[in-house]
Amino acid sequence: MAHELPFIAAIDEAIRLEMERDDSVLYFGQNMATTENEPYVDAFGKDRVRVTPISETAEIGMAIGAALAGFRPVVELYMAEFMLVAMDQVVNEAPRFRAMSGGQVKVPLVLKAGFGFTAGWAGQHTGTIGALFMGVPGLKVVMPSTAADAKGLMATAIRDDNPVVYLHHYLLTLEHGEVPDGEYLVPFGEAAVRREGGDVTIVATGWTVDRALGAAEQLAAEGIQAEVIDPRTLAPLDTQTILESVDKTGRLVLVDQATRHASVSTVIAGEVAEHGFSSLKAPIVQVTALDATIPYSEPLEAWVMPNEDKIVTAVQQVLGSSPVAA
Amino acid sequence: MSAPTGVKELDRDRLVWMYEQMLRIREFEERVKRTFVEHPGVIRGHTHLADGAEASIVGSIATLGPEDWFFATYRCHGYPLARGTDPKAMMAEIYGRKDGLCKGIGGSMHLSDVSNGFLGTSGIVAAGIPHATGAAWAAQIRKQGQVVLCFFGDGASKQGAFSESLNIASLWKLPIVYVMENNGYNVHTRTEQEDANRAHSEDLSVKAKAFSMPGVTIDGRDPVGVYETVGAAVARARAGDGPTLVESQMYRLSAHGNIIAPPGVPLHFPEHEAIEKFGAPEEYEAALKGDPVPAFRGRLVADGTLSAEEADAIGERVRDEMQAAVSFGLDSPFPAVESALEYVYA
């Protein structure tokens, strides 16, 4: 059975279910749990649910310490950029301890952060920075694009014995979707094929998945069948599903809201160039954000972002039917 | 002399134990230092020694119960020795060998021994302070009376991680004691050159005031004094009355670390910064006169706790133990290269 929920409520449902299931799950962050009658405080008490000062280094560092001491903390960070304040703890502490201890310890924690808020939030609250973390050994990085995955990936993240950066796209916050009832886990490292097609493979993440699906509908009207793949987790990254699709279609368009050299798409392009080159009938095309600080002004913001039309044009290019490629 | 409230009196056996632990740390570190000369290339990267800090380390660790936890810094060899970690496994780790405490992956700067309550060591200055604070939160939730000791240096107290953590620890009344080892130098910089309190002739423990927690400055070269002060803070933390900042003043007797050099250049320990950099050998000579290890021996022999013969016998035993650690480390093979990938993910 399933029920319809907005994306943000689906995440919430997973956290609540995991906290009910496992007393070692903690949930804390800024500007939460400030009154006695908040649902999480009411349900789980102030030992496990706490408001913190604006102190990201301490919040994330304390999550590491609590994890080393046997708990499973979920840190509510709100904005992905706030992790940058505590970059040492995210990149150079949490993922290092298991290895540096020779396997004595594990660091199960979830860093929950929204990203990509391109709705006038300007230069410092709009970044798509997931790929900055995907190359860090020891870290896992999650980026759901549907409400069901938002729930299932959060539950899996909380149960994972490693530090997980859980990134939810702010533009998807109120997107509704069917969400399975009760316990629901989505495995890490398994891409979802959102749409099947034999002419071109489009890989997209987060908010761009729906843009890619929209582009695929436009292309279908022209008789072009696009396969749309959503990796769902950046680390581990399911390159196998992408390579199999490219083997079938011979053409690849990569969509990413990040700037190109800090994008998942560039990593995938490299993997496909190395492991799937003989399948390719045309050069890979990437549709990423332009290399700019996201501008405040609406038309400028829209101009630097990937969108359906840019994806359609890219597909036409790899199929050799675009004036750009001619 | 009677111990403060909540602190167990030190009987003769415990005092002798403390002396032996101090000597074990000194002899271990002496052999680490000597390895650079006697076995060039065996120790790689950067190594930091605890000589001069023995009294503070042992006096602090002696306050812990079996279920308590502690976190340290890259200058981390002393604490586990006093806590019961096998020096053979430690030396093998510092030599990057298979039988190392952390399988040769951690090295000198990242020792940990979970079975003895040593939960981890960050090599980044102050980064371990929030880890210790988070473990103290875990202890508070568990309600089993566990306390966390958090060791760091004077330099760390200028990092945001320090301020952020102490604020939360005080706010949440966490069961933790912050032991700031002030050895007078932040790497090659003197404390008064980088610390506003020190520059204004104040003790660094005044920082506690900003977080509304007790702050106390003590002579970190006196193991009994350290034991009593840290012990009282531990008792306070265990009683649920919150954290304390202890500034333990001492003098680092070796340079900050071995020289930093590219591969191919033999590594060694330079002279202490007072001599090498500041041209103040008299400062170093004065510090040597206050060396806590012979001072404590002298005190125990003078007050009849220990005879000179007994002290000599302890010395002989400890030297044999640490020499055996060197041999064990040298004999241990390198780990299989594939083990580099074994502990990346749980």
What does this protein structure show overall?
The complex is a heterodimer of chains A (326) and B (346). By secondary structure, chain A is an alpha/beta fold. Chain A has helices at 7-21, 39-48, 56-68, 82-85, 87-93, 97-100, 131-134, 147-159, 208-221, 239-249, 264-275, 298-304, 308-318; strands at 2-6, 25-30, 49-52, 72-79, 109-115, 140-142, 163-169, 176-180, 192-195, 200-203, 226-230, 233-235, 252-259, 285-289. Chain A folds into two domains: 2-180, Rossmann fold (3-Layer(aba) Sandwich), CATH 3.40.50.970; 192-318, Rossmann fold, CATH 3.40.50.920. Chain A has a seven-stranded mixed sheet, with helices on both faces. The termini of chain A are far apart. In chain A, 56% of the residues are buried. The model of chain A has no long low-confidence stretch (mean pLDDT 96). Chain B is of the alpha/beta class and 346 residues long. Chain B is globular. Chain B is 43% helix and 10% strand. The model of chain B has no long low-confidence stretch (mean pLDDT 97). In chain B, strand 3 (148-153), helix 6 (160-171) and strand 4 (176-182) form a beta-alpha-beta unit. Chain B has a single domain (12-254, 265-329), classed as Rossmann fold (3-Layer(aba) Sandwich). In chain B, the strands form two sheets. A six-stranded parallel sheet of chain B has the order 2-1-3-4-8-7, with helices on both faces. Chain B has a two-stranded antiparallel sheet with strand order 5-6. The interface between A and B is large, with 45 and 45 residues.
Highlighted features:
heterodimer; A: 326 residues; alpha/beta; Rossmann fold; 7-stranded mixed β-sheet; 5-stranded mixed β-sheet; 14 strands; 38% helix; globular; B: 346 residues; 6-stranded parallel β-sheet; two-stranded antiparallel sheet; 13 helices; 43% helix
